[in-house]
Write a structure and sequence with these properties.
This protein has 183 residues and is mainly alpha-helical. It has helices spanning 2-12, 19-35, 40-60, 69-91, 105-126, 129-140, 145-152, 156-176. The chain is rod-shaped, with a radius of gyration of 42 Å.
């Protein structure tokens, strides 16, 4: 009878944990995590972290506090795998949230505007004198066709016709230089 009681006691007491036992369980943990749908890399990382955590507990002398060590080790591995997934999701920003940063964009815009103005001035300078003076008077100085007709001594219809000619010449000159000019 004493031997029977002794046998039942030895089976109910878990074997003392060892570092080798924890390390031998790592492949089982990896297979379990892969079976749960985690990637092999994440499964291997999580199983390794679980084993390292178990080794720390062993070194601290707290292994006896854990009732079911294999269940504990499995739950630690699963928690680590989920933590890895959460971190990866947090690091990935949606495509629309990533601003495109160009520290020279304002400077490039200024250069482009300056280039456009230089080309526009050159195109205006190429216009015949009569058309250029009329265009500057109306378009730049903001005068009306009636005021232009009085100033230049022309009929309003002639002012309108010459301004259209000046605009068409400007458009064709700027298009030849590669600018997209509306009609």
């Amino acid at each position: 009878m004493a031997t029977l009681a002794t046998q039942s006691l030895t089976h109910s007491i878990p074997e003392p944990p060892s570092k080798g036992c924890l390390v031998r369980r790592q492949p089982e943990l990896v297979a379990m995590l892969i079976g749960m749908g985690f990637s092999p890399e994440d499964a291997a990382d999580s199983a390794q972290e679980a084993v390292v955590c178990g080794l720390r507990i062993l070194d601290a002398g707290h292994a006896d506090d854990i009732m079911n060590r294999s269940a504990w080790l499995r739950s630690v591995a699963i928690r680590n795998a989920r933590k890895i997934l959460r971190r990866r999701r947090q690091r990935q920003l949606p495509a629309f949230a990533v601003p495109e940063i160009n520290p020279f964009s304002e400077m490039e815009q200024r250069e482009e505007e300056t280039h456009r103005l230089i080309c526009l001035r050159a195109a205006v300078a190429k216009l015949p004198d009569a058309l250029r003076e009329l265009l500057v008077f109306c378009a730049i100085e903001g005068q009306t066709y009636v005021a232009a007709s009085r100033h230049f001594g022309l009929a309003v219809g002639v002012v309108s016709k010459r301004l259209n000619q000046a605009r068409q010449l400007l458009r064709s000159t700027l298009r030849q230089q590669g600018f997209d000019v509306p009609e």
